[in-house]
Amino acid sequence: MFCRSRWKTIVFSLFILLMTPAAYAAEHAATADSGVTAWMLTSTALVLLMVPGLAMFYGGLVRTKNVLGTMMHSFSAMAIIGVLWVVCGYALSFGSNVLGGWIGWNPSYLFLKGLDDSILAGGVPEYVFAMFQGKFAIITPALIAGAFAERVKFRGYCIFITIWCLIVYCPLCHWVWAEDGFLFNLGASGAIDFAGGTVVHISAGISALVAAIYLGARRGYPKVAMNPSNLVMTLIGAGLLWVGWFGFNAGSSISSGLVTARALTVTQAAAAAGALMWMLIEAIKHGKATSLGVASGILAGLVVITPAAGVVQVPGAIALGFAASFICFFSIGLKNKLGYDDSLDVFGIHGIAGIAGALLLTFFIRPSWMANAAEAAGGSWTTLQQLGVQASAVALTIVYCAVVSLILVILIDKFFGFKLSQEDEMAGMDHSLHAEHGYGLLNLS
Asked: What is the second-level CATH architecture of the domain 41-432?
């Protein structure tokens, strides 16, 4: 009896010892990290703040008769894409490869119904990650609207952003950020796009350029002066974008630690450098700096650092900010020579700075990142090799967005109507599309 009892005790003790680590891991795998979750909730709110910031930025740049119509493009994106993302956008972007990796798919992600008990490896509830990513999906089509501001039908725009999100944004998001996306796995460590240089800015910039060229210029452009209605509002919008961008970039670490701190720091440095460079260029070229120039420089610096925020150090961020403002300043001047009407310079800033950031970051990558890439490659990994990966991702994004967006714009224009009639355009979007006026003085009888 003694021996039998003793053996039972030994077996039971071994069972407890063997099972305890597994039980402990199972218990703690489903535990959210309150600190990281709090930061990600804050980042999600900051990115959403960028959408009304963008509305103010754009709204101040258009003529008085189009202020509300232009701001509605941003706010309607919050409504349309906000619903679309939770219904199927997240499933298409972060589901497993289907159709040869063109898109993702996970039925349990439909309506986010499979996320109830899901905690990601970093201790963040998957609900939070899904909502954070959803804000990127909202702001990207809203950015496009600036290129054809003051001349599109609201119905056509709403149809455009709905389909564009499904067939352009979601595939790109899957390619670049999903773990089985082919750009995520290209080369030693994938195409670098920390927070949306290709997924957000290049895609928006190229699609915006295609749409602006197809729809044609605003009536009277460039002979008729089309002065901004409220540069004060534009500056406030730029400030909100700058603040929100800390969530955009630093939040993309999906953590709350060293990587987060690095991303926030280089974001600040690049934005400041971009604003400073634009001021200097204007002062040298025109003898005075302008508020619109400062706002444009801020935006150029923020865009260029977006893909690079996780891999560059502060000197690289400053260099990228300077380079982006210099390139964007002279790129914007080309539109008058080439004859297209990118109303609010979506391609000139987002497209150009996004491309510049995705490529130029290669020359400022921190040594530790390159060392990890070399280890992953099983030997060595050079700057030139990473540049090839970046160039491939940029080229693919440009071609895909241009072709699909052109087909989409043509179809919507033919079947639903996209460009405003001359009468409605001359009356202004506020009155003709929404029966409203942005400023009360216009309503005096």
From this structure: Orthogonal Bundle (1.10)
